[in-house]
Amino acid sequence: MWRSAGCQLVCPRFLGGRRDLVKRHVRTFLSTPMPEVTQMNPNIKSYEELYQFSIEKPEIFWRELANRLEWQSPFDSVLEGDFTQGVKWFTKGKLNVSVNCVDRHARTNPNAVAIIFEKDEPNQHELITYGELQKLVVKYASILRTVANVKKGDRVAFYMPSSPTTIAMLLACSRIGAIHSVVFAGFSSDALASRINDAEASVLITADVVVRGGRSLHLKKVVDEALKSTPGVKTVLVDARDGSNSTAAMQHPRDIFLHDLDKTDSTNDVIEYVDSNDPLFILYTSGSTGKPKGLVHSSGNYLLYTMVTHNQVFDFHPGDKFGCVADIGWITGHSYSLYGPLANGGTTLLFESTPVYPNPGRYWEMVERLKLTHFYGSPTAIRLLMKSGTEWVRKYDRSSLRILGSVGEPINREAWTWFNDVVGEGRCTLVDTWWQTETGGVALSPRPSAPNAPIEPAMPMRPFFGIKPTFAGDAAANEGPLCVEKPWPGLASSIWKASERFKETYFTQYPPYYFTGDGAVKDSNGYWKITGRMDDVINVTGHRLGTAEVEDAIGKHSLVSESAVVGYPHDVKGEGIFAYVVLKDKGKKMDRSEIEKELRALCKTKIASYAVPDFILFNSGLPKTRSGKIMRRILRKIATGETMKELGDISTLAEPAVVEKLLKSRANLK
Ligand code: 6R9
């Protein structure tokens, strides 16, 4: 067992539950031990040494940890290949993800709670045990196999809220070796259709309605619109919120209510054991171009990484109740509402509501009622709640909380301090976790860390085991493009149907490293802080969005000649969207406010509500270099409200006068 002379490394649980032995006001770093690695390597005496070991001997490190999974047939080599050739982990190893997330816990602990489903209306939570979850997964796997004819490697699309049905269906896909592709249920019908078509999904799983913040959203209607242009979808399984009272329009025989399949025979439980490198899911995310990328995550590799990070970064122990409030439509929902916590046999939360429904005390009332030990959320929500005042937090008992986490976007110091001091009462550990859809799980985070090292506010500080960050190989640099030197099991294996694009996007800019797309700085203590994206991706309310996607949507308007979209700092959303639009001559004489409305509607229907620009500025031209390249640097500064003096050198512009006009129009925008 993990021990150290100073006793700081001994986890409270290993002190026979004597929590009082650990001084509460001292922020300790009693991260979970890693006995499988440390026992066989007695020279490892500190976390730094364990980290070094994970970098120098990744094969041994991950081989030992892989024993935390249940393999049907053992793997031989741990790691083959490199970033440029492609990486394979645990070759020949076969396993089933649903068995690892459900069956093995149902076997030993069937009455343990797997899922707490926190419905939109407060006080309406449901508990699902591992035993119950297993039955559901087996039933849904039978439905997918026998009714929807899904086979190993087939793609199943999801347009679902976070719910136990969604979780059981996702696990059912993994049970039969199918690949799931969840599309965030806030995306428009166009965005849904293009993702379904790219993945060539034959089955879609959806709900008739979802209720969020007391408002009903008719998902099936969006689906019906999308399915007009997805000829490959043969079966639509519909989860009816109000059972047989559903009023959703159904097209027979394609659309089937799940409750009508209740009697499906599920006695024949067929488990498909897959290769560790076989795809588990596709998840689309935004990049520099207009076309979202379908990142592919593989079965055993991804599962191991989410499991280990969930355990180590969040110091997660049996009996803890993990409250990740992210939607299942994003990678955070996949890794830390579903796969990490369930692989660890933990209790996980599914949150259907919003941070302000029915009032800004919702999160903390829920923490009190459910006695959550962990709360993992976004800086945007924290900034929003900060505005409502501390009384909404203080009203509720948060003494069950031990660890707080932040994810999705940079957290500013003010929000971090409020989260730490008000929500966490200064006694919880707050971790700012940096990672990406591509990295599969947390890659930089204050934990695991050296004993007694203080947590610096508002930065992810340290790499996780096995992650070696670098500034493009420049060991002396303390600022630059954030890259990772070596493979780790959580890294996506490809972009769906676009392996060349995968290589080009991530491995050709700073070879032989993985380029994250983010910039970072390293402070004098060697701690990492993210400075933001270095490409044309912006982060709005924690949602990753390509400016090119918004430009494509705006460009669909018949009166638009060209546009350029940039992000600007926004005090709640992190970044806001600023669109510069040049109209065709015909449009110049028309009512701008009408066109503006139409442009906003286009962004909503082509992408999602969060992609609607905060500002639209019409101008006769855009600042371009003589070779015709739009100078986004200048547009970003103008959006921020900077003056001519602050713009820097504009002499390389083809038409410097454009800038004067833009500055004038910007000053008139409220
Ligand atoms: C998990 C997730 C990834 C991008 C990433 C970065 C930004 C995420 C952050 C952060 C600063 C943090 N990001 N966490 N920036 N500090 N703690 O959000 O994945 O949706 O793919 O977004 O989000 O820019 O590159 P994803």
Automatic annotation (TrEMBL):
Coiled coil: none annotated. GO terms for cellular component: mitochondrion. It is an enzyme of class 6 (ligase). One of its GO terms (biological process) is acetyl-CoA biosynthetic process from acetate. InterPro entries: Ac_CoA_lig (IPR011904), ACAS_N (IPR032387), AMP-bd_C (IPR025110), AMP-binding_CS (IPR020845), AMP-dep_synth/lig_dom (IPR000873). Residues 549-629 form the AMP-binding enzyme C-terminal domain. This is Acetyl-coenzyme A synthetase.
